[in-house]
Amino acid sequence: MELTAKIKRYNPEKDDAPHWETYEVPAEPDDSALSLLLYVKWHLDGTLTFRKSCAHGICGSDAMKINGENKLACSELVQDLVSGDGDTIKFAPLPAAPVIKDLVIDQSRFFEKYRAVKPWLMTEGPAPEREREQSPEEFDIIEDATKCIMCGACTHACPSTWSDPDYLGPAAMLKAYRYTFDTRDDGAEERLPVLDSDKGLWKCYTIFNCNQACPKDIDITRWLSALKRRSVTAA
Amino acid sequence: MASQYGKSRRSNAGNWFLHRITGTFLVFLLITHFWVQHYDDTTRSVVEQVVTEKGERPEYSEAAQKAVRAKFGADAEVTSYDVLMLRLADPVYAVLWKGFNILFLIAALHHGFYGLNNILTDYIRNPLNRKIATSLSWTAALVLLVIGVYSVIVAGWGYAP
Ligand code: SF4
Ligand code: FES
Q: Which of A66, A139, A147, B154 is deepest in the core (most CB within 10 A)?
């Protein structure tokens, strides 16, 4: 079928402001949305810029706003985005972040928040001789959260982020959950005070936009609520 | 780059927790309040009075008239104000209802102002302005609390119509 790709373009060296451009693109129903962008770049306009790497929902590079919702371009099928021939698919960069060019956003703030929650295993006492063991039941607690690929769809879909771009956001706090509730971790005392702030947990009003946006279907709001309860007991 | 996400100086976990508690509480308090104040047999008249057309004498349930007249004499004029004050003037009921109303007041004020603070800090990002806005709003809550508690305590105090 023939589709129209409507893409929000922005070249900071030439443009004062972002603007929409449209391209006619041939597509099959089981093509990914990413393949439309690749077609534009390879055949119609080589200056189109976007991030992508694995094309299989693993690297988390190509989160963007597709038809108004934050999604991974490689994991969305054309048939789920249009109802028939001649339809339009709209591509825009993730909201609430500075745009570097076209669909590429500046992720430095996103990763600053990630580092702020100390996303690594913190342990006390001497290191064991062998690996630190964890039972399947203990892993179950954090299994859902370990699926995160750091695509940023959730954080940039959150109204709390829109109103305050410095809000830690779901992705970073989900990471905090993943380590704080890891039975091998002893870092809660260092990690929780970062979350228990006016940039952290209490700005989560359980809006559930993050859950809706997450391409890995992680129950983010639920795990953030677990962190809130842990913070209350710790305080 | 220095991170702005250091340890926070003050925990907000307590306020968040109270917000949950007061929210749950308010459901029950509101139902009780509405029932007692507007639908209970002795005070139903208050509602009836509101819906009575202008110029007509308000209608009261028999129970309400009887209760007021028993207290203030057979000729007592019965108004909605009397009915409410009567309840608050009764020494036994007063403790219950004044306690209830003060609890209601505290819960509603905390719940409402915590919410207002969230909205304020959502939109005000300058730290100084934030401080000013939150201090002002909590001060307003405190003022309302003082006025409210005072009114509840003195209401019906030695009341005679
Ligand atoms: S939680 Fe989901 S939406 Fe958020 S960064 Fe991880 S994979 Fe992406
Ligand atoms: S390109 Fe890797 S997740 Fe889409």
A: A66
